[in-house]
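Late entry, evening session. Most of the bench is empty. Finally got around to the prediction I had been postponing all week. Sequence below, unchanged from the version circulated by S.P.
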Amino acid sequence: MKIRSGFVSNSSSSSFVVVSDGTLDQKTEDAFMESIRKKYVKFVPFQNGAKCKFGWEEKEYNDVDTKLNWAFLQAYYAKKSRMANEKPLALLRLLFKSHRIDIDECALNKAVDSDLAYIDHQSCCYENERHLDIFKSSVKLRSFLFDSRSRLVTGNDNE
């Protein structure tokens, strides 16, 4: 496994992702996307009941829903920040399109703009572009999302 840590911060929050070696779990991906297709006409990020506010908590997440929320938030921030980077959101669109699912991007914008979903600033791609490493390729993104060995680790440096 590869650890993507980016930097050590003196902020109150810190997060990083661990991405598996690139082995794709097609069965998990297909089952997850099939469940999405049954629930939604258009997929609505952050409506899956999983964690969607990432601040100071110290926890590890390896469930698909939470990692997907994290990915959508980073993609949103990459697009809306001074970086104006469309690639992360485009990769998510392609992933969902490959399973014949559309994304409700209006709901994505509303959720983040109203603080229903967020990532603390020190763990955001606009503070450190290394947080976009999961979007370097479709394989890396899919490995992060669907491999149970990949995980998101959140925390803080208050102690």
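Two things to note before I forget:
The chain has one domain: 2-155.
The beta strands are 2-4, 14-19, 42-43, 53-54, 59-61, 102-103, 118-119, 151-155.
Will write this up properly tomorrow.
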